Amino acid sequence: KIEAPRRKIVDENSIIPDFGAQAEQIISTAIEEFSRSAPSTSDDTVASTAYALKLSELETTLDAPLQVLYLRQLALLREQALSSYRSASKASESSDYEAMLAADAQFLRGAESSTRKSSAWTYDSERSHLQNVMNEFAQT
Predict the structure, then answer these.
(1) Would the pLDDT of 42 be above 70?
(2) How far apart are CA 79 and CA 39, in angstroms?
(3) I need a labelling partner for 137 at 20 to 30 A (CA). Which of 52, 89, 115, 127 fits?
(4) First and final C-alpha spacing in the chain
C-alpha cells in the first residue's frame, strides 16, 4: 500500500493532495487486519501486553517510510509555493508581501492536508525554510 504513494511522490515528483488521510488509512487498515487475525487476549495480561507492543511496532514500522514520503512531499510543496511566490512577485500589481502571504498560505494548506493527524509529523521546519528563502529573494 505504501508503494503507490511512493511512486507518485518520489518517482513522479507529484503532490498527493490528501496524503495525510491516505497515510492514516494505510496504517489504520494494517492495524485492523492485524487485530482481526490476532488471538483474543482478554484473559491473559502477558498476551495483552504483547499484543499492545505488536500494535505499536506495526504502527512505527509503517509510520517511518510514510514520514519519509511526507518530508519529500513537503519539499515539493515548498518548491511549488516558492515558484508561485516568484511568479506573483514579478507581477507589477502584486507586492512582495502579498506574494509571500499567498505562497505561505498555499504551502500551509498543502502541508496540513499532508500531515497524518495521529502522528508527531510537523511541517514547521519546511515552512520556516520557505519563509527564509522568500525573505532572501525579496531583499535581492
Answers:
(1) no
(2) 47
(3) 115
(4) 45
